[in-house]
Amino acid sequence: MAKAKTKFVCQNCGYVSPKYLGRCPNCGVWNQMVEEVEQTTAKASATPSRRVSDLESKPVKIGDVSFEREPRIKTDMDELNRVLSGGIVPESLILIGGDPGIGKSTLLTQVSGQLQKTGGKVLYVSGEESASQIKMRADRLGIKGDNLYIYPQTDMSYIRQTIDDMKPDFLIIDSVQTMDEPEISSAVGSISQIREVTAELMNIAKQQNITVFVVGHVTKGGAIAGPKILEHMVDTVLYFEGDTHHSYRILRSVKNRFGSTNEIGIFEMRTKGLVEVANPSEIFLEERLADANGSAVVVSMEGTRPILVEIQSLITPTVFGNAKRTATGLDHNRVSVIMAVLEKRGNLMLQNQDAYLKSTGGVKLDEPAIDLALAMSIASSYKNTGIPGTDCFVGEVGLTGEVRRVNRIDQRVNEAEKLGFKRIFIPKNNLGDWSKNNKIQIIGVSTVSDAMNKIF
Ligand code: TYD
Ligand code: MG
């Protein structure tokens, strides 16, 4: 028998090399080259062998393409509908990634329970848990029904067969890394396997008109395990995040062929499953100590929704060596830039101070409009002077200390007013942007020093 030929495949980017390399020359990652058996069949090509379109398809004028607008399937969870831009698009392939134990299986079990109530047949394929374990979870979540089928299986050939026999409307694959395409001899979870299984699922979705949800594990770095190609192939990519020490979970859309991304859905993990959080701002501000030093509230846009989050700073003199800077939920570089601006343009002596900053509730804030709140929170802690608990901030800070205009100012102001804030500090240039008469006092600021003079 001829010796099986092997190749080394980078598990990060999919680069193929005939010999072992410590560092992938394509993406530069170390220790990710894994030996896989070379395929002799047509399957071995670098791109997935199955295509969504068939050979008979011809170019058509765009005006001649006929299509009926597919109604989106609404689940009972508005937060999920929001992340999917209104609901599930039938026949799409949706990938959900997240850390272990974050609640991916719980979310999909709940969604299955709702989808089968409307008459759709749901096939839940699990490669990670037995039928009784899934049943236990479903009982806990209060899911009953005749249209939900549990199928503990990892072999794709059996799964294909079952789909042909059963013709489900929805297919759940928990998880793609445990599925095994028997025609591929590489280990389960390897890059070739994941690629082939995903191509197969895409094929099932588009040709048999089945809506498919796929769970994907994430790597230590937080990306979905396997090559980026996995995210390129599917229609929608959602990340389920949050830290396991908090009960709040954030579902974020990072790719959506049928709608906008950057929408978030907020859930809370309770003993009976995931519950939607309709008004996140109230929760993020719940435990706030009003008027405390170093606390400032920002109105940040998450997708199309404004949420209010508290930014906390603790500025203390450096006792030994270099000043420390730590930021949780905030971009480290942004914090450094704002501190430098405060030092140079606001005359705060921050270079010999340690700074610890965080956004509360486990939310990650990354839009520029949080700058002003960040700056005021640092200034408040440095000056040991609290900011009134009924104040909030929005504005981008430039390197010359100017406060720059931000988008969607009306939505932000209205949300702050709704939550009972008395004053909102916004960029001066945003003042003329809308004409509504608000109860909340709107104060325009032009620079960080101007803002500090008005507050402290
Ligand atoms: P799970 O959905 O199994 O996570 P994943 O599939 O992402 O690995 O959820 C696991 C965690 O959720 C587990 O630590 C227990 C918790 N949990 C609840 O708090 N309440 C519940 O009703 C359920 C089903 C799980
Ligand atoms: Mg799971």
TrEMBL record:
One of its GO terms (molecular function) is ATP binding. Pfam families: AAA_25, ChlI, Zn_ribbon_LapB. The keyword Hydrolase applies. Residues 354-456 are annotated as: Lon-protease-like. InterPro entries: AAA+_ATPase, DNA_repair_RadA, P-loop_NTPase, RecA_ATP-bd, Ribosomal_Su5_D2-typ_SF, Ribsml_uS5_D2-typ_fold_subgr, Rubredoxin_2. GO terms for cellular component: cytosol. Residues 69-218 form the RecA family profile domain. Keywords: ATP-binding, DNA damage, DNA repair, DNA-binding, Hydrolase, Metal-binding, Nucleotide-binding, Stress response, Zinc, Zinc-finger. Plays a role in repairing double-strand DNA breaks, probably involving stabilizing or processing branched DNA or blocked replication forks. The middle region has homology to RecA with ATPase motifs including the RadA KNRFG motif, while the C-terminus is homologous to Lon protease. Belongs to the RecA family. RadA subfamily. This is DNA repair protein RadA. It comes from Companilactobacillus futsaii.
